[in-house]
Amino acid sequence: MDQHFKEAIVSGESSLGIEFGSTRIKAALINKQFEIIASSSYEWENQLIGHYWTYHQHEMVHGLQDVYGQLKQQVMTNYGVKLQKIGAIGCSGMMQGYIVLDESGELLVPFRTWRNATTSTAATCLTRQFQFKIPERWSIAHLYQAILNNEEHVKHIKYITTLSGYMHFLLTGSKAIGAGDASGMFPIDRTTCGYNKKMLAQFNELIRDKAYPWHLKDILPSVLTAGEHAGYLHETGARLIDPSGDLQAGIPFCPPEGDAGTGMVATNSIQTRSGNISAGTSIFAMFVLDKDIGVYPEIDIVATPDGNPVAMVLANNCTSDINAWIRLFHECCEAMGLAIDHNHLFHVLFNKAMEADPDGGGLLSYGYYSGENITGISKGRPLFVRSPDSRFNLTNFMRTHLFSAFGALRLGMDILTQKENVAVKHIVAHGGLFKTPLVGQKICAAALDVPVSVMSTAGEGGSWGIAVLASYMIQKKKNESLVDFLTLQVFNGIEASKMEPDRVDVNGFARFMERYKKGLAIEQAAVDHFIEKD
To answer: Which helix (H) or strand (E) holds 204?
Structure first.
């Protein structure tokens, strides 16, 4: 195997995927058989600065160099060769948000992430104007809100993009984006796989009196579908990734994609009627549609990397508050002089949830580290509530927090299944919540009342998914679709573990959801009366 990998490295028969996720930047180098040659990660965290959630530009570049440096060192240590040639590269990142550049390519304002719930006025107005759901997270909502706020920087915009599109631009100079990521910027026309021309015209008319020196189409990235070439690594980009100068320029790039698109690839959920769920800092479920559906505040319409429409139910919050509580337990262990491995602590506490009362013992939590779009909560107020007669113990405490991670998502899912009769017969899960074997899978099956599968590749995540898309670009046969490439080549023989919902757990989650819905007034009161510090 080592010789097999070494030959792929030396010949450049490899693909590199780099994903800028919400908690980690990850890189994966794969061979032509989609096996991982080397992988790496860099932890980072969003910051609330000036009332906006953001990541600093400097850390984007530092994290990129760190994960590539780790990758390069692994290659040298394990295979005794220097990483210089790569067959293809792809960039992925957290979807949506707001990155705007001036004429010289500099950021006009700090990156405003998907997590910001500051664009409700703009999103509501555009949804009404287009008769199409525009979420608060979408780039066009951020842009229009900046216009409504009369922000000075807007007239200087030359380019608006997402995080994946920005990193792609830095490395290639190409102002392009994949169809999946583009669908989180502005509505996509399913017949052309480009931006909706009617809505572009409506937006330009909406802001005509502002007399900005740009039209919307001129500042948006060009939309490409999976398999198309999206530029080449230029010399400056090569030195940005690898300051040592070893990496050769001229490497082709696939279209940059969002984490939703790479998640669909990583779970082979591209074909019509397939579905997947990703659970990490945020949580979202995606279903490739075979019909049009109505307009709902809780459901976004996005696209697969090859341009097909997808119903997306996304909740802003999932594991952040769980992680905060486990950090607290870790501090407690340290205070008692106990050396506890952090991952082991996760494993132990997650498994305690399996011993709990089916409904979590009457406890209630909201892991709202930020505002929650589905339930209409505008600001983050993590909250834990119990009554004197609740069964307050560790097992119920953990189950309640895991149940809560799926609470807002379930409300959106009910619209798809009950109002639109979308048949959800099976779902593939991936993301950090499913790292502890069986626990997240069992909770998810109870929360959604559907069988849940976890693939052996699920732990590789988006960096592997975007590496596969890069590989598709250079390996696909003539006229070979992405669906066929994934089914016949990438996932042929890959195993998946499937878990059916337990009726006791399903009924317990239903009782929890009754508390969850009634308790939203408590969460709103926390927003109204618990004041943020300056």
So the answer is: helix 197-206
Tell me the per-residue pLDDT of 40-92, one tens digit each, with 9 for 90 and over. 999 998 898 888 999 999 999 999 999 999 999 999 999 999 999 999 999 99
SS3 of 85-152: CCCEEEEEECCCCEEEECCCCCECCCCECCCCCCCHHHHHHHHHHHCCCCCCCCHHHHHHHHHHCCCH
Q: Mind giving me the DSSP string for 285-350?
A: EEEE-SS-----TT-EEEE-TTS-EEEEEEES-SSHHHHHHHHHHHHHHHHTT----HHHHHHHHH
The dihedral through the CA atoms of 507, 513, 519, 521 has a sign that is negative
User: What backbone torsions phi and psi does residue 225 show, to the nearest 5 degrees?
Assistant: -100, 165
Which amino acid appears at position 322 of this protein? I
Number of H helices, E strands in the chain: 19, 22
Q: pTM of this prediction?
A: 0.84
How confident is residue 534, by pLDDT bands cut at 50, 70 and 90? Answer: low
**267, 455 Cβ separation under 8 angstroms:** yes
Query: Which helix or strand (DSSP H or E) is residue 509 part of?
Result: helix 503-518
* Token digits of residue 438: 């069986």
User: What distance in Å separates the CA atoms of residue 171 and residue 231, rounded to the nearest whole number?
Assistant: 9
- At 425-471, the pLDDT tens digits run 889 998 888 888 899 999 999 999 999 999 876 556 789 999 999 99
User: Among 274, 251, 249, 256, which residue's Cα sits nearest to residue 264?
Assistant: 274
The CA–CA distances, whole Å, from 187 to 141, 172, 301 equal: 11, 25, 8
Residues 6+ apart with CB under 8 A from 53: 46, 47, 112, 113, 115, 116, 370
β-partners of residue 278 are: 284, 430
Is residue 16 within 8 A of residue 89, CB to CB? The reply is yes
What is the distance between the alpha carbons of residues 151 and 122, in angstroms, rounded to a whole number? 14
Q: Regarding beta strands 275-279 and 257-258, do their DSSP bridges make them parallel or antiparallel, or are they unpaired? A: unpaired
Virtual CA dihedral for 480, 483, 486, 489, nearest 10 degrees?
Answer: -40
**Other Cβ atoms closer than 10 A to 253:** 23
Asked if 80 contacts 73 with a C-beta cutoff of 8 angstroms, the reply is no
3 state SS of 17: strand
Q: Which tens digit of pLDDT belongs to each residue from 190-221?
A: 889 999 999 999 999 999 999 999 999 999 99
Closest CA to 229 of 254, 249, 193, 258: 254
Q: What's the number of CA atoms in the CB half-sphere (13 Å) around residue 358?
A: 12
Residues 6+ apart with CB under 8 A from 489: 34, 475
The residues with which 498 forms a beta bridge, in sequence order, are 453
Amino acid identity, position 195: Y
**Residue 322: closest CA among 2, 23, 524, 21:** 23
pLDDT tens digits, one per residue of 367-408: 999 889 899 998 899 999 999 999 999 999 999 999 999 999
